[in-house]
Every structure is written in structure tokens, then in C-alpha cells.
Amino acid sequence: xxxxxxxxxxxxxxxxxxxxESGLASYYHGIGRSGEMTCAHRRRPFGSMITVSYQGxxxxxxxxxxxxxxxxxxxxxxxxxxxxxxxxxLGVAHVVIE
Length: 98
Description:
Helix content is 26%, strand content 39%. By secondary structure, it is α/β, with parallel strands linked by helices. Strand 3 and strand 4 form a beta hairpin. InterPro entries: RlpA-like_DPBB (IPR009009), RlpA-like_sf (IPR036908).
């Protein structure tokens, strides 16, 4: 029984880690409703929710655009999301997304 629980826990952990990415994020004037936390990602499906974390702050944003189109960046977040994360002054920051 204990082996089955351990195996199930490892499978869950592995699937969560497989979906996590880390890299550079920037912000843009998103195409969502005013004040909505949205983002642009190259591969995640439109409408999916992504958790973006930066220095202990985490937000949830909805994928509603494709991008970023600058090499080395993994996500563009809306200005509302950038304010919530505290990356407005930086312009580009290293984040973790899941």
C-alpha cells in the first residue's frame, strides 16, 4: 500500500515539474479587458490559466495571445499582471511559470 502511495505521489510531482518553466518575462499592453491579468505564451492553449511567480509573489493569468517573439523570453504578461508581480520597473525579470 505504501509503495502505491509513494508511486502516485512521484507521478503527480513529475507531471507538475514537467509543466513548469523558468526564464525571462516581459510585459506588454495586453489585449484582454482592462485590468484583467492576461499573458502571451508560445505553446500553452488559449484560455488556459498559468501561475507566474517572481520573488515570492504569484499571480494567475489567462493565455489569450501568442508570444513573446524575442529570443530568450518565455512569457509576456499584461501590465496589470506586471504590476501585481512587481516587475514594471524592471521591464524584464526571471520568473517561474506553471
